């Protein structure tokens, strides 16, 4: 027996079948096009930043290697003969306990190379004087805060770098482990610091740059190192700050220190 359909139900189905689809309007088409363009633009920017970071980081690694090799060649060159005979007494020999310290460098001058073995053998970035964006940080370099200590000097040697874009030198800063080596190479040799702690602060908390970090009106009696960068990544709401203490200095004549090859041991 065939089931009968009530007349009102059949009419309802026919009405639904005949109902026209909404017609596309000019504004709806424009809206969809804008949404598509926005997605494509976001994908392009993300790709551009990611690829750009790889390219800039690679350039910085190559420049750092070239600078280190240049310093090696200069150190291997024989010293020029003295033009005048030395006096009978001669100069006092350099005290081995003295740590050579560079003088303050002019803005933009590249004077060192930072290496952190925790981040891999290829992690190496030139250090330039100053923290301005256009000519230092945006070039993929680590910037040295003016008026803070130089490497190996009593006080607080403070540095800044990007965590994204421009090679993102400090991208992995939050991966540091207590005891990790932070090594700064200069023409004189290598200064090894050891990571101790990190924290997140507001961008106005400049006390982290004091001679003794976060200690006002306290005279420095040790050698500190401070790294700063944006946190979280992709914005500038706060700063991540990493602190380290000086361990030793290795003259260039002695070759690279074991802190560069010992892995991450404290």
TrEMBL record:
<keyword id="KW-0378">Hydrolase</keyword>
<dbReference type="InterPro" id="IPR053465">
    <property type="entry name" value="Sortase_Class_E"/>
</dbReference>
<keyword id="KW-0812">Transmembrane</keyword>
<dbReference type="InterPro" id="IPR005754">
    <property type="entry name" value="Sortase"/>
</dbReference>
<dbReference type="Pfam" id="PF04203">
    <property type="entry name" value="Sortase"/>
</dbReference>
<feature type="region of interest" description="Disordered">
    <location>
        <begin position="1"/>
        <end position="20"/>
    </location>
</feature>
<feature type="region of interest" description="Disordered">
    <location>
        <begin position="66"/>
        <end position="102"/>
    </location>
</feature>
<dbReference type="InterPro" id="IPR023365">
    <property type="entry name" value="Sortase_dom-sf"/>
</dbReference>
<dbReference type="InterPro" id="IPR042003">
    <property type="entry name" value="Sortase_E"/>
</dbReference>
<feature type="transmembrane region" description="Helical">
    <location>
        <begin position="24"/>
        <end position="50"/>
    </location>
</feature>
<keyword id="KW-0472">Membrane</keyword>
<keyword id="KW-1133">Transmembrane helix</keyword>
<protein>
    <submittedName>
        <fullName>Class E sortase</fullName>
    </submittedName>
</protein>
